[in-house]
Amino acid sequence: MKRAIFAVLLCYAATATASLEPIYMSRPTYSQLQANADTYHDTHVGMMGVLSLNADGRVYLCESLDVCLSWNPNKLEVNRVALKESLGKNYKRLDRCHVHVSGTYIRDEVNDFGIRIGLLSGSLIRVQLSISREDYAEFNPHCDVWNQAVETSKKPGNENMLSEIIDRMKYTVM
Which residues form the signal peptide (predicted)? Predict the structure, then answer.
């Protein structure tokens, strides 16, 4: 009898778990942030883009690599101190890599959208590579972390390493 009840409960739990879908945080586009800065202000968001470490010490998350290299305002400043606390010195190895950054969006108080559209900050700032193809280095040869992974994958026994890394990125919910 106990086994029958346990089996029924186990089936119910498996069915309930299978029907649950992951809940993703708010992931607006750069245009949505700019158009609705007040709505997103002080909200935890996830943003995709290229991380750019500038010579002046500022860190930006840019909509594209072209945006990082120009005065295009489609970028968010990332709190460098929070980033360093999250990743340690390794955050520098993500320069010019495509990443997913989650943090608290703070609108630009002076509304100077000529430089940036706000700040990603907070104690819960997280950064993760966001790469969807094994040949990523052909498109962007500047990402040190990915280039090291490519070199490691060339060693015997690591043939599936890149596809496994990409699969983990795809299914990780931040």
Answer: 1-18
Residue-wise pLDDT tens digits, 131-168: 888 999 999 999 999 999 999 999 999 989 999 988 88
Number of domains in the chain: 1
143 close to 137: Cβ distance less than 8 angstroms? yes
| 85 within domain boundaries | yes
Helix (H, G, I), strand (E, B) or coil at 52: strand
d(CA 24, CA 99): 16
Tally of CB atoms within 10 A around 106: 19
Identify whether 7 is part of a domain: no
For 92-111, the pLDDT digits (tens) are: 999 999 999 999 999 877 65
Is 105:33 a contact under the CB 8 Å cutoff?
yes
Nearest to 79, CA basis, from 129, 131, 24, 126: 126
> Is the pTM above the cut of 0.90?
no
| Residues 174, 128 contacting (CB under 8 angstroms) | yes
42: amino acid identity, one letter: D
Please give the residue range of the domain that contains residue 85. 23-131
CATH number at residue 88: 2.40.50.140
- Residue 95 within a domain: yes
